[in-house]
Amino acid sequence: MSSKKLVTDGRPARNKEGKAREHAPFLFLLPALLVVFAVLIFPIIFSLIVSTFDWPLSEGAGARRFVGLGNYIGLTKDPEFWNSLKLQLGFIFVAIPLELLLGFAAALLLNREFFGARLVRSLLLLPVFFLPILSGMTWRFMLQPRYGPLNALLLKLGAPEITWLGNPVTAYIAIIIQDIWRMWPFMFMLLYAGLTAIPQEMIEAAEIDGAGFWKKLRSVIIPLLTPTILTAILLRIIDALRVFSEVYVMTEGGPGTSTMLFSLYTHRQAFGYQKVGMASSMAIFLLILSIVFALTLVRKNMSLDVLEEKAGG
Amino acid sequence: MKKALFMLLLAVAMVGMVSAQTINVLFWDDAYPRTLMERIPEFEKATGIKVNFEILQPPQVFTKTSVAVGKDKTDYDLVCVDEGNIPLFASLMLPYDQWAPGKVFKKVDPSTVTPAMLDVAQWDGKLIGLPINGNLYVWMTRKDLIENPKYKAEFKAQYGYDLGVPQTLQQMLDMGTYFYKNGIVSGGFGPFNGGPAGVFGEAIFMWESFGTHFIDYVNGKPKLVVDKAKAVQGMEFYKKLMAISPKGAETMAHVERQAAFCADPKGVFTQFIWPAQIASYEDPDKSLAAGKIVYSAPPSGPAGRFAIRGTWAVNIPLASKNKDAAAEFVYWWASKDIATWLVEKNTVPARTDALTNPKFAASKPWLAAIADSMKYAAARPRFKEVAQVQDIVKKYWIMGITGQMPTADAMQKIMDETQDVLKKAGY
Amino acid sequence: MKKRTRTILTSTIIAIVAFLVLIIELYPIGITIVNGFRRDIIILSGQPFKLSQLTTRSYELVLKNPGFQLGMKNSIIIGLLSTGISVLIGAMASYGIARFRFGWRNSLAYSFLVFRMLPQISLVIALYLMFTNLGIRDTVGGITLAHTSFNVPYVIWLLLPFFTAVDKAYEEAAMVDGASRMGVFFRIFLPIVAPGLVVAAVFAFLNSWNEFLYALILTGVKAKTAPIAINGLIGGETLTWGQVCAAGTLMLVPVFIFTLGMQKFLIRGITAGGVKG
For residue C75, which residues of chain A lie inside 8 Å, CB to CB? Predict the structure, then answer.
């Protein structure tokens, strides 16, 4: 930063448009700042205000009432809140490591040329872009007992007939499998890119030293890939914190509340129970959680300076 | 000159006001309002009132009404309210006795509404709007299955009485068990998914059938009055029914129940239906069971026969500026002509004279069953916090009937958590 | 020779495994596409697949469905509008960050990055109340604005690497000739980074195209998008699986064309600012 000079430094135009230049960045940034204020910052402030009220969605339910931190205290006493938080964290901590593992394995497997390698690598990415609601619906359909194709397949393989979405445990497993199915190729994509960026000489050097596959993995590949892996995990965590539509169409949080992830419960509080204030306090809670993860990601893995150095300054 | 100009302006303004009157109406999405929409141009022509209608899935109707209808402001001049939500919105709606007398169409006498349905719009001793459809539990049994000679003979030999339309829950269990052994299921009983209201209906159905109310109004406040022993009996019985229902019955929403009943090549013995959906079950394009269904009132339990009601009322918000035009629209909709035509189109309005019109008796076998069910109509308890209680019942009812939790424990949970909600709400 | 045989053998085995994984992975997508060509009643009665079942009936029904027609139309309009606005505003902001040095530059850039990662559910309730009060709920403008909220920060970070890679000499030369900053940006700079703008536009469009939660809450009847219309197909009276799959396949066409056509930029697209450099 310090080594960089103002773009127009030392140019003849300096004196003539000195004043205009000072305002230039502001002019360029103004529209974005306006949008961000209107649809991001203001709603956050508004949520904060709403979260201190007992705020029924309908006026028929009674008047709005200031309750201070009442909603936040209410949350700590609500077992369903803790349940949804537990489910949400479980979802993250089960799905993401498995996605990482699968993605890493596939990246290692496909990091070489063979007939059709490029085709496989491209098509493998399609699920990442499959519409989330379609994904949820397709899984709901595939897991249906009588006519669901996946269920039929499992039956043929000798598995007992399970009502996947009817049992709290299997339904929870099902929404996790859905997520893994859709998002492990995301991990694959990042890790594959990371792998191809490792200089071939480093791997060859290890081979000359007589390193076997595992040794190579441990001493060369993993250390070099660690930044990529961390970034991928953080991106996935941030993304998984806001899971809504897939699960909404797949189970609607059921059976009971066994797949009621955080977003779904917030939605239910606001639009089912009409408790907008309570829902806003949940929204703020999730917001803080996300910002913590996002800041971690930003601090660790992103830097404007690196971006510019890479661009050659 | 000035005066003449002023008069002219006034006249123009008045004509403008009259001719440009528009009402905004919010409908729920099913075959019934969709059918009605075909005739709306006639209403517009007859009255000069333009109807802007929106049609949404029931949960969205609820949310939208919540936000769009306030004390002083409303986006709609006419809304539909599901019976369970009447308490929530009652204070925002114009009581029916204050609705204008009709100009083009006559104000509908509430006594034309089937008595079992009229109750839907009653709140705090007042009629808040007009019930508009006739929706309550009706039973369906597959005719070809109960008339199959082989099944008939075998069943009689095993159980000692005739196979037929189940008259009691016990008969339904006997017959269903018999069919189950022959590879035929009895259609999942409740709509368990797609909103908790369906499960709540099933639970109330069983509790009432086994002799207990769930929540009653005591001194104007909702109070938990359930008799745990009887409630557990109802739940236990339902658990037995689940054993003969299709796999995954506990995950089915309306659409999946329909898929199960209509698309199972082996046929499904019996199942309940909301009459609002009959049109789809009788559509050969969507249903393998079309034309093969016998309709009846629900089977009775030890404490009697109950048909759970699920009806919509139409209401005019107090804040509406077009109350008279909205009322006019309702009078047209609930008129004998339109109601009769709606019956002809396989939908179910709330007018007695349309539902009992003899000209439909032969072609629409469900009408007699609906009329029969009306005699046993039972309502789900309603109060402002009903959404939360529904979720509680849904959660533990399913755990109880699928064996994930002993029924007595599940019932205890329902009671404890419901009590908690009522307490927090200040009752 | 022996070593070569072994290499070929390994390659073959890996190719077979890779294709197997691919087939399993794409199975759900394949099912969706195939079922779009089968009738609802055949799907729901669990009949095994036969070629003779194939029909375009579900497509005909879906294309005639006024709800889906409107949803598609809205999705395209909202997608294009929010993409256009976001790319314009985002490119300006990105340029501001890439080319100027000012005190709050870093914190501003990182704030945009954090904004891109906020959960929608945290914002949507407030947006709902705001939009209702302003009367822009269930309008194309309202939902476009909501989509802009995640697309602007996204575009800013997606474009940064493209922008920093451009040599400043071009602009400096133009400014020596007396052109204004804005003029330079629009006439000189944007054409140079056109490829980056296309990438940003494609991904911003996909973000909007796939979006569900905002549309669910902030639209109703008039401005509903295609995902909401598809959701309505199973939420209504009948389980119209064939139609859901047909509608879904139609939605997937642009998604897959863009995905496969944009191979080179996929990583930038989905991580936008998430990977070093």
Answer: none
